[in-house]
Design the sequence.
């Protein structure tokens, strides 16, 4: 109980198990929203982010290096590979703080009445399992609920293996509030007006704030066959631009935050009613910030005006969702973009002031049935358009239109074992696009080549966060 007699909740961002992970402006935004909502309801809220060194004031820790914009390495330790990944010739790691340090931290937190654990990539679930086991061991007999992306995309799997008392898939809504209200013995906890009414996410729970992640819209009006957005959000809702500007101003003025990463699936769609007023507000208020779009922007929406405003408002990390220059694949995967659209967008961005090398274009590698030649052609196309190709390996996601094809052609049992959905495995590799092909392409992109002879890339390491 806190001073106002209300119960308290511990919110947990779990460890990650993977071959590689990097803090590309990676924060548990959903969990921080829940913290904000519960705090506004008067509940005591404590927060455990197993990944974030600054949350653990421990002299024994050597801090991993971070860049000025906040992105950087995570604390990591080697762990044994899960049996099913035994054949993969790469080291496996737990990303996040060492277990002993996390346990000591948990013991110092006032005993909560309920624990809410979030989850992110489906193939990170074993980190969720380990975190829940640790919580049970250190502070036993407290109900643990699991939600988030893995819980939403693989609910039965999560119910079976996570160790949580309850799995609550899907976006935050009145039903989840009611269930949580029952545990907190608060029947008044039932009014939930949805995304547009939520308070700002509780980023202030972090002792240091090198950057803040921001969501201006929930959902996406497109339905690309490789993407799970439609399973993760109900519909497509946009915040009032004034509210978004207010949030940017809040973090900037009250917390000195300069770097912001947009988590939107469709930030630029219908620009005149959304991104343009937001950027006008940023410029008008003289907010001197750096904006990053690690999650791809929609190419079709980048006309001259949008490009100019992105540049003038301080967008530093531009990533475009192009995926492929092969027109058949473009139309089969959702038709969100054409080759002409890409050329136009790059031209507009360059006219606005960006160097070609600053315009990263995501290309999807390892789509089911894709041949290596398609990716080679796409790389050449992007370079010819004057931008920088960035390869992202395809991650097959349950419940997406492409999952069935991926499942049929993959050498891995994608359905039964989410660990195989890891993009690092190149899960749909085949003789037409082998592991060696992919390594060769990746290497070729690291080598300086015309038309960008020796431009140093600020984002080389770990880049490739596009979806
Ligand atoms: C931002 C983002 C990233 C960020 C990092 C995000 C993070 N914190 O991990 C970056 C840019 C780094 C990234 C990278 C990648 N991503 Co990404 N990313 C996203 C994105 C766009 C938004 C996630 C988000 O924060 N949403 C906003 C918050 C508010 O939502 P939320 O966390 O789901 O929380 C809500 C609910 O789940 C719930 N909730 C959350 N926690 C809890 C807990 C409880 C107890 C309860 C009750 C409820 C609850 O309430 C919240 C409010 O409704 C999603 C797409 C999407 N629409 O979700 C893809 C997505 C998660 N990414 C995906 C992919 C494919 C990738 C990449 C593999 C892309 C690539 N090929 O390189 C890489 C992987 C990086 C790696 N190291 O492995 C896939 C998932 C893949 C998978 N198998 O799981 C998604 C779903 C996109 C897609 N294509 O469909 N990504």
Sequence:
């Amino acid at each position: 109980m806190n001073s106002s007699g209300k119960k308290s909740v511990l919110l947990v961002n779990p460890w990650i198990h993977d071959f590689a992970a990097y803090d590309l402006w990676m924060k548990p935004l959903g969990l921080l929203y829940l913290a904000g909502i519960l705090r506004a309801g008067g509940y005591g809220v404590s927060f455990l982010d197993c990944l974030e060194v600054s949350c653990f004031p421990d002299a024994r820790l050597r801090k991993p290096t971070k860049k000025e914009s906040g992105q950087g390495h995570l604390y990591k330790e080697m762990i044994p590979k899960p049996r099913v990944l035994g054949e993969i010739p790469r080291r496996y790691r737990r990303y996040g703080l060492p277990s002993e340090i996390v346990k000591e931290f948990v013991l110092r937190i006032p005993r909560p009445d309920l624990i809410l654990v979030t989850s992110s990539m489906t193939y990170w679930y074993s980190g969720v399992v380990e975190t829940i086991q640790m919580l049970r061991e250190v502070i036993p007999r407290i109900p643990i609920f699991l939600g988030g992306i893995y819980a939403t995309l693989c609910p039965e799997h999560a119910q079976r293996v996570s160790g949580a008392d309850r799995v609550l898939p899907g976006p935050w809504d009145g039903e989840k509030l009611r269930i949580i209200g029952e545990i907190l013995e608060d029947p008044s906890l039932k009014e939930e007006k949805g995304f547009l009414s939520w308070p700002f996410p509780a980023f202030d729970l972090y002792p240091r704030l090198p950057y803040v992640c921001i969501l201006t819209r929930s959902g996406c009006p497109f339905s690309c066959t490789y993407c799970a957005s439609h399973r993760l959000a109900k519909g497509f809702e946009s915040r009032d631009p004034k509210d978004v500007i207010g949030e940017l101003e809040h973090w900037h003025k009250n917390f000195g935050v300069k770097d912001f990463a947009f988590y939107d699936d469709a930030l630029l769609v219908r620009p005149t009613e959304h991104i343009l007023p937001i950027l006008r507000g940023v410029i008008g208020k003289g907010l001197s910030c750096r904006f990053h779009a690690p999650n791809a922007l929609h190419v079709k929406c980048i006309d001259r005006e949008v490009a100019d405003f992105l540049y003038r408002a301080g967008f530093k990390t531009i990533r475009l969702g192009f995926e492929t220059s092969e027109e058949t694949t473009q139309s089969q995967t959702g038709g969100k973009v054409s080759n002409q659209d890409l050329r136009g967008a790059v031209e507009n961005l360059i006219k606005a002031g960006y160097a070609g090398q600053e315009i990263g274009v995501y290309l999807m590698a390892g789509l089911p049935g894709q041949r290596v030649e398609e990716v080679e052609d796409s790389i050449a196309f992007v370079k010819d358009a004057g931008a920088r190709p960035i390869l992202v390996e395809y991650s097959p996601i349950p419940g997406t239109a492409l999952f069935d094809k991926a499942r049929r052609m993959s050498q891995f049992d994608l359905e039964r074992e989410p660990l195989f959905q890891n993009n690092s495995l190149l899960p749909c590799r085949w003789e037409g696009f082998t592991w060696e092909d992919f390594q060769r392409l990746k290497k070729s992109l690291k080598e300086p080549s015309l038309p960008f002879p020796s431009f140093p890339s600020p984002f080389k390491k770990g880049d490739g966060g596009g979806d």
Remarks:
- Residues 52 and 96 are 7 Å apart (CA to CA).
- The radius of gyration is 22 Å.
- The first strand starts at residue 8 and ends at 13.
- Residues 241-255 form the longest helix (15 residues).
